[in-house]
Amino acid sequence: MPIFTLIMSNPTESSSPGPTAKRSGPLRALFALRHSCDGILATLREESAFRQETALAVILVPAALLMPVGAIERVLLIVSVLLVLLVELLNSSIEAAIDRISLERHELSKRAKDCGSAAVTIALLICAVTWGVLCGPIVYHWLRG
Known about the structure:
The structure is a single chain. By secondary structure, the chain is mainly alpha-helical. The protein has one domain: Helix Hairpins (Orthogonal Bundle), CATH 1.10.287. Helices cover 79% and strands 0% of the residues. The protein has 5 helices and no strands. It has helices at 3-8, 26-46, 48-66, 71-101, 107-144.
């Protein structure tokens, strides 16, 4: 094997002689779905914040389906909850990548993790405002009754 190939090769990749064929069509989608499920399960296993937000989603999504609101408002309620889960998944991936690179403290690592945390906070704020604006008056009227 030429020295340039040895230098440029990634030691974690397999050293098979030929390039691997890329999957396409439905098979590719099936493998992508499997990797997505693996990511969700790993995050549920490793991240307590994601478990808490998932528990909240298990309550809020059915509640959104039962709320006496229009279709657009119902979609906004559900999407605001899913947004929190999405941003938490991205934050967890940033944290995992930073920790994979190095566990030592570094200003750029701190900045990346802080930005991810801030994104989760903003997603939670969006969710709270959406639910407050769309469901607040309904709950208020139920309580006044």
